[in-house]
Write a structure and sequence with these properties.
By secondary structure, this protein is of the alpha+beta class. The chain has helices at 7-13, 32-36, 54-68, 108-130, 186-193, 200-205, 220-232, 273-285, 312-316; strands spanning 48-51, 137-141, 151-161, 167-179, 196-197, 237-241, 245-251, 257-260, 264-265, 304-306, 324-326. The chain has one domain. The chain is 28% helix and 17% strand. The strands form 2 sheets. Strands 1, 2, 3, 4, 5, 6, 7, 8 and 9 form a 9-stranded mixed sheet that branches. It has a two-stranded antiparallel ribbon with strand order 10-11. Helix 4 (108-130) crosses helix 8.
Length: 338
């Protein structure tokens, strides 16, 4: 059976293959905070990290998939012969898609190749099937991090052709940050996604002689890298991954706050990484049924766990998707217009 014969079931069941790792190449083990080269800066605005409840996120993704992903044959092959778009994540015995013979991940280029060739390629094929208007969008590597030994950035962006015939990336919609798993272990990612506050307002108002009083706190260095890159490209939606672990996030419109998911492992189910990534791209594109984050107030207390309702609630009457757990916070629920 082809993935296009029952796309919904394929996305429900397809799990990423295990990525075998080789020993890191010599000279590529510099501590990640040092290699990223970020420092505390007054211009940054990020003050609060809000956690998205894992059960509510799972409900939202499931309901969206059930309503918007077809389960009937689409009448097309898994691979588009004209564009080369294809499904690459095998799901035996139902969808025996041929495996890709990728090398062991021993450096950031090979880690990024696993990310690009498996989940991103399959999500690209799905997006172009479901939303033909998105066919000018692709995942592409960004030049800003080409010299980084443990980090790469890809963008879901529109590609246009210049007068000279070169392809140019425009309209960045979602940023994906790929890190080597040996440089960004699970415990550091757990610290990255926990609810927390940063002294950015005090840092911005401090005199030059007082700024040393506000060094980075725990994983603030990583948040600073993500914030800087997203802010410079005006792209609020992002994903952080080591292939083994995945984090999905979005900054508030004022860039003062961020909503971030818990860690999801590569072979997770209900939802799968393909479902999560697809839902995040759809939300970033502003398509019907995607998630619209709640409004935030920078003075709200942490921890806070919020999810807003989407159009799927009108059809499924899912009360859990309307739930919002806030401790000392006043969050407004936003729903998309019909």
């Amino acid at each position: 059976m082809k993935a296009t014969d029952n796309l919904r079931y394929y996305l429900h069941e397809a799990r990423l293959p295990d990525m075998p790792q080789g020993p890191p190449a010599a000279g590529k083990t510099e501590p990640l905070p040092d290699s990223l080269g970020v420092r505390p800066r007054r211009y940054r605005r990020l003050e609060a990290v809000h956690s998205i409840d894992v059960e509510l996120l799972g409900d939202m993704v499931f309901d969206w998939t059930e309503f918007y992903i077809p389960s009937v044959p689409l009448g097309v092959d898994d691979e588009d012969e004209r564009t080369g778009d294809r499904f690459t994540v095998s799901c035996k015995p139902w969808f025996p898609i041929p495996s890709l013979p990728l090398d062991r991940a021993s450096d950031i280029e090979r880690v990024s190749s696993w990310i690009d060739n498996f989940p991103l390629e399959s999500v690209l094929r799905t997006m172009h099937l479901l939303y033909p208007e998105s066919r000018s969008f692709r995942f592409s590597f960004c030049n800003e991090c080409s010299a980084q030994p443990s980090f790469r950035k890809l963008s879901w962006a529109e590609l246009s052709t210049t007068e000279s015939g070169k392809r140019k990336r425009v309209n960045d919609t979602l940023s994906l940050f790929s890190f080597a798993p040996w440089a960004l272990p699970e415990e550091e990612l757990q610290g990255f996604v926990r609810p927390q506050r940063f002294p950015q307002q005090r840092r911005a108002q401090a005199r030059a002689s007082e700024r040393k009083r506000y060094p980075f706190q725990e994983q603030e260095w990583l948040w600073s890298k993500v914030w800087d890159s997203c802010f410079s490209s005006d792209c609020r939606w992002f994903v952080v991954t080591t292939y083994r672990f995945w984090v999905f996030g979005v900054f508030s419109p004022d860039w003062n706050s961020v909503f971030v998911s818990p860690l999801h492992i590569y072979d997770s189910c209900d939802p799968t990484i393909l479902e999560l990534l697809l839902f995040w791209v759809v939300s970033a594109m502003g398509y019907e049924g995607g998630w619209i984050p709640p409004e935030t107030h920078t003075k709200s207390e942490l921890p806070i766990q919020c999810l807003s309702a989407t159009i799927t609630d009108l059809f499924f009457n899912v009360s859990k998707a309307m739930a919002m757990v806030a401790y000392g916070a006043d969050c407004s629920i936003m729903t998309p217009a019909l």
